Amino acid sequence: MPGKRWPATLAALVLTAGMAHAQDARLDDSRMFSTGEEAWNKVCSRCHSGHENSVGPNLLQGSYDEDIIRFFARHGSGPMPAFTAAMVDDTTLSQIAAYVIANHKEPAE
Ligand code: HEC
């Protein structure tokens, strides 16, 4: 009875469209972090601040540009996990990069 299958197909379509929409809304929704500094502190600094338990290099003492920071954040490297746009959106990532570049400090001898 082909006629009877329509409502279910339609319901599935509406549901799928609704879910896709909810996902889009979530990605452009209000950002998780209000500033680059906050995102840096919550997402990156535990591995990159150069304190004794930090596993990654101290980024504030390196020379990085935004492209390099973005590349590592999106792809990960060795023990560093990759961060998807759902975890750290593009705007936030630019602000993290701006924060790291603006707070650069020469390593103490
Ligand atoms: C769980 C710990 C961890 C977190 C969280 C983390 N990283 Fe890393 N990151 C590392 C490690 C370890 C390395 C060195 C990787 C290697 O040797 O291949 C690294 C390397 C890097 C490098 C390259 C440094 C160099 O001189 O080679 C950049 C840039 C970087 N991370 C940026 C970030 C940013 C931006 C964030 C936050 C979005 C972040 N990382 C979060 C662990 C982490």
TrEMBL record:
A molecular-function term among this protein's GO annotations: metal ion binding
Residue span, Cytochrome c domain: 31-104
Pfam family, one: Cytochrome_CBB3
Top-rank lineage group of the source organism: Bacteria
Gene3D superfamilies referenced in this protein's UniProt entry, alphabetically: Cytochrome c-like domain
TM ranges: none
Stored InterPro entries: Cyt_c-like_dom (IPR009056), Cyt_c-like_dom_sf (IPR036909)
Keyword line: Heme, Iron, Metal-binding, Signal
UniProt signal peptide: 1-22
Identification of the protein by name: Cytochrome c
The species this protein was found in: Paracoccus limosus
